[in-house]
Design brief:
The protein has about 350 residues and is of the alpha/beta class. It has 15 helices and twelve strands. It has helices at about 20-30, 45-55, 70-80, 90-95, 105-115, 120-130, 160, 185-190, 210-220, 235-245, 260-265, 275-280, 295-305, 310-325, 330-345; strands at about 5-10, 35-40, 60-65, 85-90, 115-120, 140, 170-175, 200-205, 225-230, 245-250, 270-275, 290. The strands form two sheets. A six-stranded parallel β-sheet has the order 2-1-3-4-5-6, with helices on both faces. Strands 9-8-7-10-11-12 form a six-stranded parallel β-sheet, with helices on both faces. The N and C termini lie close together (about 10 Å).
Length: about 350
């Protein structure tokens, strides 16, 4: 059997959703190591057609990103092809779907049926083990990494155009949905406007939940100092991150680590993030960024960052060094190759 991998993802490039960015980065790294793989985006391809194409492709391993969205189909395909299944569980799988009475049975069945389950951080592994102790021996932690494709000539939006006023920029890079809490920073940062004239809050990311998107649009209508750029191609993100003074994450939960936080740290940006396990895996409070546990703490720590360029520089440099030391691309790809090798002799 050839050393081939069939990868199933709920979204793929050119989508700028987190799952698509993660899958694209890992696939690019695997191809650079000589792995033959094909990617199927289940948001655009019917499952019956995917199953036929996977059968013709003849993979040695099926690799599914997202237990709930792609796991059931991937488990069925792997069993029919008589090959092992690796499931990469996401934050939504672990923090929401595994606890939801409607979706939990599906997630459990997928994780219990997989030959291996990968997560991005030990905190995610702990949740799975508590819910499904029998899966512990098949769990592997593979931290994420960072990579950007080269941006085409020019910038959209131009980095220089991001700054409409001489004041500081707080960037909120995330898909607009409830778990990201996009409305949360408006009131705390509004309190700081008298102290920091020209302060702007800039949201960048697609609207993934229409209700949350409408609520944000309505709120921004009365807040001229804040705006939403919408979805931006991932290759454009470095320019936006580098043009910002502070990068903000307000998530209720994360899948071990947010791509946006990891990317911001890799570029030496000062990060202000909610104090949750996923963010603590990347940000050490006061060392590589700042964490907040309340609205009042967000206001106070945002004030510290906006008022102290040296603090932003120190935290950003520490964050960059942390990412370089612990979250390298080679380590990530080595992790997946090790799992493939353990699951199939084709990769030996």
């Amino acid at each position: 059997m050839a050393a081939r991998v069939a990868i199933l993802t709920p979204f793929a490039s050119p989508s700028v959703r987190g799952n698509a960015i993660t899958a694209e980065r890992i696939c690019r790294g695997l191809r650079e190591r000589g792995i033959e793989l094909r990617v199927w985006d289940l948001s655009v391809a019917p499952e019956t057609a995917v199953e036929q194409r996977i059968e013709r492709f003849g993979p040695a391993v099926v690799h599914a990103f997202h237990a709930l969205r792609t796991g059931p189909a991937a488990l069925r395909f792997a069993r029919r092809a008589n090959v092992p299944l690796l499931v990469t569980a996401t934050g939504t799988d672990i923090n929401q779907d595994l606890a939801d009475p409607d979706s939990a049975p599906v997630v459990r069945r997928v994780l219990e049926g997989a030959a291996a389950v990968s997560v991005f951080d030990e905190s995610m592994a702990a949740v799975i083990v508590e819910a499904l102790p029998d899966v512990a021996g098949r769990l592997v932690v593979i931290p994420q990494s960072v990579s950007f494709e080269a941006a085409p000539d020019g910038h959209w939006p131009p980095a220089a155009a991001l700054r409409r006023a001489p004041g500081p920029i707080v960037l909120f890079p995330a898909g607009i949905r409830p778990v990201k809490q996009p409305l949360l920073p408006l009131e705390p940062l509004e309190r700081l406007l008298p102290e920091f004239p020209g302060l702007e809050l800039v949201y960048v990311g697609p609207v993934l939940d229409p209700t949350t998107g409408e609520a944000l649009a309505h709120a921004l209508g009365s807040q001229p100092w804040a705006r939403h750029l919408g979805a931006v191609p991932h290759a454009r993100m470095p320019a936006l991150l580098e043009a910002s003074d502070v990068v903000l994450n307000c998530s209720v939960s994360e899948g071990g680590m947010a791509n946006s936080v990891l990317e911001a740290l890799s570029l030496g940006r000062a990060v202000l993030a909610s104090d949750i396990p996923g963010n603590r895996s990347l940000v050490e409070d006061g060392v590589s960024g700042l964490l907040f546990g309340s609205v009042e703490e967000m206001t106070a720590k945002a004030r510290r960052l906006l008022d102290d360029p040296d603090l932003r520089l120190r935290l950003g440099q520490a964050g960059r060094e942390r990412v370089a030391a612990r979250f390298g691309a080679d380590r990530e790809i080595d992790g997946y190759l090790a799992v493939y090798t353990r699951l199939s002799a084709a990769f030996a």
